[in-house]
Amino acid sequence: MESLLIALIVAALIVALIFSRLSPALLFALAMAACVLVGTINMQTVMAKATNEGLVTLLLLLMVSVGLERLPWLLAISSRAVKGSLPRTLLSLSGMTMLFSAFVNNTAVVATLAGTLRKNPHHAASQILLPISYAAILGGTLTLIGTSTNLIVSSFLEDITGEGIPFFAFLPVALPAALAGLAAMLVMARVLPSADRDNAQVNEFLVEMVVADDSRMIGKSVKDNGLRDLGELFLVEIARQGRLLTPVAPDEQLEAGDRLIFSGDVSQVGILERFHGLRSFAIDEGLLGTNLTEVVLLPGSAVIGHSIKESEFRSRFDAAVVGVHRDGERLSGQLGNIALRGGDSLMLAVGPDFQKRSNLSRNFLVVDSSVASNSLSTGKSLTVAAAMSAAVAASVMGWVPLATGLMFLLLLMLAMKLFSTAELRRRFPFEMWLIVSSALAISQAVMDSGLMGHAMTFLGPLIGSVPPIAMLILVYLLTLAMTELITNNAAAALMFPLGYTLALTAGLDPMAFVMAVALGGSASFLTPYGYTTNLMVQNLGSYSRADYLRFGWLVSLSYSIVVLALLPRVFPF
After folding, report:
1. What end-to-end distance do the CA atoms of the chain give, in Å?
2. Which domains can be identified in the chain, with CATH numbers?
């Protein structure tokens, strides 16, 4: 009975991850709590999983990345890598991105590059940003610390065997696979959106204005008020007393309280100030002017899932939302009622304290380069780089655990005042910790309940008749599919127990299956949702969902063929 209940909990978790909009962290925590309620595991087990050394290493690395992402060299090198030739630009930028992503959080690498590359004078952003995202994913697979996926899999392995994955164990398989993916990107570069499409769509935001009670526009038609000839802005809807009027007829008369929904180039929104009694929150607060700043909402932001009204946006960030852009979906209705999603582009009218807010990097990728950079000085940069190299070298040589080296590196960064303890507390990856610790506890419940044993006993005869390579391919493809449907971290957490147990049941060495989960969990090249960096560049490059599939299918195929060809040779069954 207990094993049946655990099976239902796991099945419900998988279905909810695929079809629900609830955060993966909440879903994993609920599933873990259900396992405790059933009685399969207790709170002592949960607490032990929450302090797993591999998980602690992951958390330390993500906090150390707060300092590493401020190293100035990536931005300096990238500005020299952009050439007149698109293939040469993609080759140099992708190679540089892969190298940095092997040692620095790949989300931070893409965030550092995106704003500058988007405004480069030689190529459209749509021709560069998606390849950079894919290069960051490929580079992250090269080392243990390159991506959270590798660290999560290592955490699971350490929880079972007491020993995680060595730092450079991924390299013999991941490097050839990454080079194959890079070659595929160069071949498929021609299918990326053109400059014309990029320029046409990049500023298409939804903008909302309100007709004040004393406006002289009341009682006059849209045409008479001059709202039909606004150049780059187009009146698409009127929200009136809970109803949406669309399309807007030229003879439609305006009423007090009407909310006018415009679409177009948000940089031209200032022309709406000339209309009497046409107001917005940004105008009323004195924020609308030359201080428009574009940001991309990062996954994990505190305002995701909330409307602009509910999120108390002004008090959080000293900024007002002037426009919202969500590629691939036509936004409709009142701007303040739109539930925000990760990857949304927001045009903000910012106040004087905006740049001083310490919560910006946690919530936004700031695209506008006018926002002050927190890059380190040369002396501090060299010190941090040397300390990071020492921590990695000490771990590779077996002198100290990686977690110990990262702990001392973090203390050094605090001593150098690279960031404050308050900022570190705000950047703590709570959702990541909750997902991994809950997944470890759920995995233990699956084992302790006998569910996995029953399943393997039932499938044992079938497993014995299937070639090992076929089982390896199945585990890899399932992980790959889960990554595209949910997220890389959740996919790795769900698939590791299956792959590991499948290998043991078949009497095989599990390392090839462990690596298949890690490398398959990072291979998100077909959708914007499987990996954070893909979501970050979606609106910046004006990519549709089809663009990911057109550009990424050969990358995914090439990468997967090399991985599956090399895994049995590097990690024999």
Report:
1. 35
2. 201-366 (3.30.70.1450)
